[in-house]
Amino acid sequence: MKTEKKLDLIIIGAGPAGLTAGIYGSRSNLDLMILENELVGGQIRESPWIENFPGFTSISGSDLADKMQDHAVKSGAKIDEFGNINSIKLTDTEKIIETDDFIYKPKAVIIATGSKSRPLPVPEENILHGKCIHYCELCDGPMYGGKDLVVVGGGNSAINAAIFLTKYAKNITLVHHSANLKAEKITVNKLFENKNVKLMLNTEIKHVLGENSIKDILFENTETGENGSLKADGIFVYIGTKPTTALFKDYINLTSSGHIKTNENLETNIKGVFAAGDVRYKDIRQLTTAVNDGSIAALAAEKYINGLQY
Question: Were 32 and a residue from 9, 67, 96, 159 both cysteine, which residue would form a disulfide, CB within 3.0 to 4.6 Å?
Fold first, then answer.
């Protein structure tokens, strides 16, 4: 029999939004637990550096994640890292979250599960994933010393990853499906200070041939329809993310993109259930907006738990 634990608040996800919610919730004297099924810190842990977070002109994502985690723990938050959730039930009157070890029955829940990288849309992705198609430059970049790489994407994540990979790769080809890059101009300029970086716009990768390594990369020009091929030893993909909401789809109202719908107090359609960070529907998703969401959700949850009105 698993032990039942009744507590004030469960926060699902220990990225910036979840950790900030843990800080604010702990400072409100809530008995809370943060559940994280992967490494604490979320996607920022994969960023080689962050230069747009107030107070830090430049800091690595892993260092900032460590500081946030340390702050949450020192505030009193308990974190169950690699705490896998087996089942969940969320209603207006009852919240039950079962993990490998416990059955939690909180008064309120904050969903801060963030998002995951979208896979490269080629038939061979599931075969080559982790072999030569990658989504984390920090994890897999060092194995490509002196090799040729392709980076797919045009946003800040792709450009920052390409900059990081210039430390290892012999040559980098940046492939983007449209005519313009979406990343900040200062970051783009920094990337193309490197003479070994080539840009291919209006280009979509259609196939990656090979079994354990890349034999050929087939692409199509989205403007002309012309086909071509290029050689590389590895591909790093940054073409956006999708929200991690499959666990909640039977209870929480989602948008067509899978994001959680909330009001301005970050309440979902279930009383006492809130959402924060990249997992919820909003126009702008940045580190600073995730932190903002975490504080709002925690304060709203505290008011709900204590029976206060907005």
Answer: 9
